[in-house]
Design a protein that fits this description.
With about 775 residues, this protein is mainly alpha-helical. Among the domains are: about 5-85 and about 115-325 and about 480-520 and about 580-650, Sodium/glucose cotransporter, CATH 1.20.1730; about 345-440, no CATH class. Helices cover about 75% and strands about 0% of the residues. A hairpin with a 2-residue loop joins strand 1 and strand 2.
Amino acid sequence: MNSAQATVRWPLHAVLLSLWFAASFGVVFFARDLDAVVAGWPVGFWFAAQGSVLVFIGIVVVFAWRQNRLDSQPSSGASTPPHSSGLHRRFAIYLLGILACLIGLGLAQYAGLPKPWIAGIFLSLTLVLYAAIGVYGRTTNVDQYYVAGRRIPPVYNGMATAADWMSAASFISLSGGLYLQGFSGMGDQPGGLAYVLGWTGGFCLLALLVAPYLRQCNIYTLPDFFALRFGGKWPRRIAALAAILCSFTYVVAQIYGVGLITSRLTGLHFEIGILLGLGGVLVCSFLGGMRAVTWTQATQYVLLILAFLLPVSWLSYQQTGNPVAAVAYGQQLAKITEMEAQIMASPTEAEVIALYVDRAQNLRMKLQDVDATLKAERLALRAQIQALGEAPAQQAAVNRLRKELAALPKDAQAARVQWNRQLAEYADRSRALSGLNPHTRAFAGDPNGSEQEATLFNSSRANFLALMFCLMVGTAGLPHLLTRFFTTPTVSEARTSVAWSLVFIALLYLCAPALAVLVKYEVMAHLVGQPFDALPAWMAQWSKDPSLLSFSDVNGDRILQFAELHVGADLIMLASPEIGGLPYVFSVLVAAGGLAAALSTADGLLLTIGNALAHDLAFEGETDPVKAMRTVMWSKFALLVVALIAAYAAAQRPAGILYLVAASFSLAGAGLVPAMVLGIFWRGTTRAGVVGGMLTGLGVTLYYMLSNLPAFHDALGLGPVGGLWWGIQPVSAGVFGVPAGFVATLVVSALTGHKGRPAKDLPV
């Protein structure tokens, strides 16, 4: 890039980055003050849920358009992409095929085809389609396997990137998280719209600071950049290990989602569902690498976006008369605010809350001496069973007592875990709105209230900003996402592809808050206050899994109160067709869409891990044609092994999907982004500086996460967890790791001077 171009482009970067900062951190910081209502929308909520996302799209589109016009030098190694009209025709036929299949299965259901058959047919068809693409795209060619021959047109690469990006967390858990957390989460636990802002705003950093510059290097993997820029072995090795670490954390969450959806769609056991879904992943990524994965992900995007938009559009039409949910759901916000006030003022709700307070206090007493309490409860139940005897009239009571005895924890350790979990649940339900933050209120607490309320407000806002920061910076550093932009023919098309990616992603992210609001309105308006005998049938079906839905008549009035209802985050999306009264085939479509989201992301992640192990660690970027072919074979073997290990980890049912995914963003942001951005834009960055920066960023992030993880301390016998720094939750550990990585890279680079800098600078 010549100096004339540099003087034009840096002001463009500065203006767009300033706009990005104002539309994200600026709006969020003052969100509580933006409480005016315009056209039914609280201004602060609208900006966080929609306005800022639209600004982000504008930033990426303007940057791609302007920068591409300024580019006068075509990228080297560009290939002619496939003919677009043929691709458009194939995707049109594919879309019509999906719709025809849905109509056909709907008619078959009306004619009496059993539901398991409908689910089995649709699931089989989608998996066969993915497998067919994987077989058709099989390759051992190095360029095809790693970067799809760099022949993917921007619009289809954007579609594939969107599918790769919108994982099980986005499809299954995002709307549920927004339902439970409202604007900003619960107290000092961040969430809510931080995910929408973080996962879309990060594409501005990706477009302006990373993706086009990496594409210009004509590399295969992200660690290749560190080897090209800094030379030596350790920059590549540490970058590969960081890529493996954050990608493995992410892929476990995806395979967990695969098992959850497949088991619900087919009725198989969770572990069998994992293996069945894993087969679909391996057929694509194992045989054809990036070539097969790209086209599989593009087809999966069509399926998952249909599966998301159809139920939310139907709910919107039912409630507002307008099927465009992202536009219409604002009118429901005021109604929800009013119903929340009614629930908090309800005497029956207060009665239920008081009962939960008593239950929580009873558990606290039990936990004071777990061994004695467990022994006393076991003896008391046995005594009651003996007292009732074997009389036929008492048989029902005896059976009930025997079930209670069997349900008791087996030992003191199990009792402690179970009772602590129940105590946390009762503590939440003993608060107003079951511990939920009012939906449109930005941050818990009150800045103008008592000292405790003001502290809670500051903590809630700080954690929201920290989580949003980690998600944004992590987006710019996720290896499986960055690799997607190595597949376009030219650098300018890489920029265009980023813009298309964000547009396709925004179709779901603009509607996820809408689905949360529409379902919450449905619950508050049509379920709460209804007799238990009049509750819809779908509630009984989904309550078979208490983690997704549970309800009980705590106060014995046979009327459902809000505090008596527990809704799991994953229920909101998975049950949306039943909540809207749609035919069963739409439930199958939603499950298949969630499966597509999980599979598409798992494909990209497993491919990234396999390539890092073989290409970057074992063969260290070998370019000899014969050895490179061997590298591809080892990449496939590594992918298979990692897939089996991730499946085993997912079968242990780890922490929630959103938490796992958010943790991987902190690791990617802290371990890779500081060294990568400084390596691109600062010629003074040295090999020693990059090594020190990556190790520091990863070290600080991992330390903060693990030092505040009770399970880690219990496993190693380390005693109580470490304290929080400035009240920031460990899920946002990257807020400390990223600055530490930048500082370490700058300081060590300045101390080592020109050492470790390669003779050839990057073409930026």
